[in-house]
Amino acid sequence: MKNVYDYLILGSGVTGIACGRVLQQRNNDNFLILEAESDIGGLCRTREIDGHYFDIGGGHVLHSKYDDVLEWIFNHIPEDKFYKMDTKVVIQLEGNEVNFPIELNLWQLPKDLQVEYLHSYITAASQDIEYENYEDWVRNYLGDKIADNYMIPYNKKLWCIDISKLNTAWLSKIPETDLKLILKTIVEKKANFDESVVSHSSFYYPKEGGFQTIIDSIAKHVKDKILLNTRVDTIRYDSDSDLWFINEEFVAKKVITTIPWPVLDIQGLPEFDFKSEMDNLEVLSNVISLWERDAYTHDNHWMYIPDPEVEQHREFYIKNIAPHSKEGGVMTDINYKRWLENGKKWKAGIPLAEHVNVWSYPLPTTIYKESIRKILDFTKDYNLYGLGRWGQWQYFNTDQCIKQAIDFFKNEKDFDYFKIF
Predict the structure, then answer these.
(1) DSSP code string of 154-218
(2) pTM above 0.85, yes or no
(3) Inter-axis angle of helices 111-125 and 134-142, to 10 degrees?
(4) Tens digits of per-residue pLDDT, 172-219?
């Protein structure tokens, strides 16, 4: 019999690396991490290009409401090795720039627009409307003006699907506000929000390298447990031995997938319609492009751009996030479908670099959650688990992925896949 691992971990993105490290900290070294690519990091990888730190997954920054996650990270890379910044995000709105969150910064608009947007918000807030999808929710919560000029066009650019197909579970990322607070901002001409309203009102970023510095600081402890250039072709369960065989080469008692379920060829389990459930798991692919512009004359960290005439829906100002990076660096984010529709060309010319992320975000449709729950509930009985953005098919940021790894190994049997989302 080949060596039998306690765990085989599929993928060496942040979730896979965190799983391995947490196992190691719990005195279990009998695991292996399989990675299809030639380097680790997944969406958290960084490339240095002509002095610019290019985070290929988009504008990653570290923020978290989980103290245990921050403590765990700072035990690997000390807090004083990070910049800590108050977040400044802007939105392009009807020819104006307004700080995020929009509803707490309406006072930055010209007065005539302030009246229109505030009236729209108050009208919506006075109603008690049941909603079933994203568009219903945004109109009920923020009003038609914000819906029609920001939230709906922006999310159409971002997701490139009929937004009535988006569910409301991911709206935990939307700031929590109320009418009294919004009126207060208008009177005081001040946003008046903190971490209780917006979870990323401040963030951390490494003082050296790019975002991958965080992943590398964790991965160095488990580097001997990572096998690169190893694509998972088949994953077979043997009911006689109660073991898993990966590519008929690696054997384990338990498997944790942090890679997308639809890429797995699962064999040997009792009858379960994986295909029909996985067909409900849709994905957003994007393209991150690196540009060098003139030195900025602002202190914005990133911008949301709802205007459909502008190709990208977001852009990130690298040097304002990573002061050690070269002047003028900008990353843009565009949905892969829009990029193809534009012939892979840009009005601004040719970027310094581009990276296509085929697996960027799970699409939060109205039907995905039932399917991923069925998959997770079924496979866990056979010691096949899914964790992280792709394993749980949730719009998790870095801190949430690490949180899953920390909590999972505390209580595998009763782990709640949907607790923090």
Answers:
(1) HHHHHH-S-GGGB-SGGGGGSPP--HHHHHHHHHHTS----TTT-TTSEEEEESSS-THHHHHHH
(2) yes
(3) 110
(4) 556 566 778 888 888 888 876 655 556 678 999 999 999 999 999 999
